[in-house]
Amino acid sequence: MDKVSSARKLKDSLGFWNGRRGFQALLREDPKGLGGYLHPPAMFSLGADRGTLFYARQPPFCRRCMAYGHILASCSTRKCRFCGSGQHEAKDCDEPKACHGCGSSTHLWRDCPARQRSYASAAGGGTRGFGGRYHVQGK
């Protein structure tokens, strides 16, 4: 994406902030991309928090194989998101879970010593970051 605007708080029909933020951005042209554009990922992570991205005329996105052009209900790919095997899905995985940050099988991301904690977390606050969904509006 190019030329991303600053965030603005999105409001509901009564004028109250609904917890979402909106941005305006231009998609980069890509002759190999779907529809001639390079699309940003529909799902992303910021540390331990996961978010989703919605924008006008967004192509269908599959949450199983992480590819554009179809949705999960019509996906024929079998790929485990834990170990990367093409022989089974995550629900059937027997491999030990590993940290997504450093790859160690002795702990998960939430307990990773390499993870930088937020100030609120270090100070004993109950927040885990802003997380949730993001809404991007196209022009």
From TrEMBL:
Residue ranges of coiled coil: none
Transmembrane segments: none
A Pfam family recorded for this sequence: RBD_ZCCHC3_2nd
Domain CCHC-type stretches: 61-77, 79-95, 98-114
Protein name, UniProt field: CCHC-type domain-containing protein
PANTHER family referenced in this protein's UniProt entry, alphabetically: GAG-RELATED PROTEIN (PTHR22639), ZINC FINGER CCHC DOMAIN-CONTAINING PROTEIN 3 (PTHR22639:SF3)
Lineage of source species: Eukaryota, Metazoa, Chordata, Craniata, Vertebrata
InterPro entries: RBD_ZCCHC3_2nd (IPR057811), ZCCHC3 (IPR042509), Znf_CCHC (IPR001878), Znf_CCHC_sf (IPR036875)
Record-level Gene Ontology MF annotations: double-stranded DNA binding; RNA binding; zinc ion binding
UniProt record, GO biological process: activation of innate immune response
Annotated SMART domains: ZnF_C2HC
Species, as recorded: Hucho hucho (huchen)
